[in-house]
Amino acid sequence: MKRRAYSITAAIIALSVSGCGQRGDLVRGVGEVGPAIPAGDTAPPTAELQTTASTQARPRRSDEVLRRSEERQSDEYDLPPE
């Protein structure tokens, strides 16, 4: 009995997941407004611009190797906690 319940549950899950596939590109309907124009810009942002990660979100990796040891410069703002 349990085995049959598991197989029915698995079939339901498989059918519901199989319906999640993309059938075509998303298109705005007639009369729908696109994304808002940010302050200071003259045109609305494109899909490419909105999906590209900023450098703050995905910083570049620095592969520069330390070639010689250097002493740290003094930091007058590096104070011990009070």
Q: What is the overall pLDDT average?
A: 79
Structural class by helix and strand composition: mainly alpha
Globally, the shape reads flat
Q: H/E series, N to C?
A: HH
Rg measurement, Å: 28 Å
Residue runs with pLDDT of under 50 for 5 or more positions: none
Beta strand %: under 5%
Task: Count all strands and give the number.
Answer: 0
Helix content class: 25-40%
Main sheet characteristics:
none
How large is the count of helical segments? 2
Distance from N terminus to C terminus (CA atoms, Å) equals: 69 Å
Care to describe what's here?
This protein has two helices and no strands. The protein is mainly α and 82 residues long. The model has no long low-confidence stretch (mean pLDDT 79).
List the defining traits of the structure above.
mainly alpha
Short description:
This protein has 82 residues and is mainly alpha-helical. The protein has helices at residues 2-18, 47-51.
SSE topology sketch:
Elements: H1 2-18, H2 47-51
